[in-house]
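Milestone M4 deliverable, item 7.
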Amino acid sequence: MRDVISEPAEPMLRRTVGALAAILRLLTHQDWRGRDRIPATGGVVFVVNHISNFDPLAYGHYLTWAGRWPRFLAKEAIFQVPLLGFVASRSGQIKVRRGGPEAGAAVDAAVQAIREGKSVSVYPEGTITADPLTWPMTGRTGAARIALAANCPVIPVGQWGANEVLPGKKLTWPRLFPRKTMRLLAGHPVPLDDLRARPLDEQVLDEATDRILDAITALVAELRQETPPPGRWDMAAGRRLTSEGRA
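Output delivered:
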């Protein structure tokens, strides 16, 4: 971890990250790349692929040792889990309520955090990928909406390996041994400057989301040493789209 993280952080976040990092160092191997691409200061959005219920731990470990605190947009259900919900609330995690009059509150809270010099991490897919081959699937526009509203850098991060500990969405006993390697790679900022001067409509949000997912997919391909299939999996349609679309 960098000697000093200048980003503001809640005491609960510092304590939780420290405890989990000590455990993860014992239970996993780390293949961490591109940490020099993580901005040391200033508001920023990190966008990362979602492959496992274990990957928030692997990614949070990486991000902290790159010099930023992991502050996620997280589903409301997480805040309703005993103890976990208490920790999430006290550590600055941002609750996402989908639908209804409070749906935009998470975006507003994320933009405010960024303006305070904090980092916010978003899973653009909105949930663990449903792609049978575990590639990034079609995404939601929340990450793009936050980044364009806050006028901040968007740093893509690809990850691979956490899916070997907890495959898919089912909560099972983690497969910790033999120790798995958590592979993470940060990329260069997603180019969105040409979109910032345009009205924030669905066309702009869709274009920004496509660029974000393209950047993440390229990083995942580098980590996997594989070529991704053409198009992205659409969870609602239950198939891979050859031309981009969203659920």
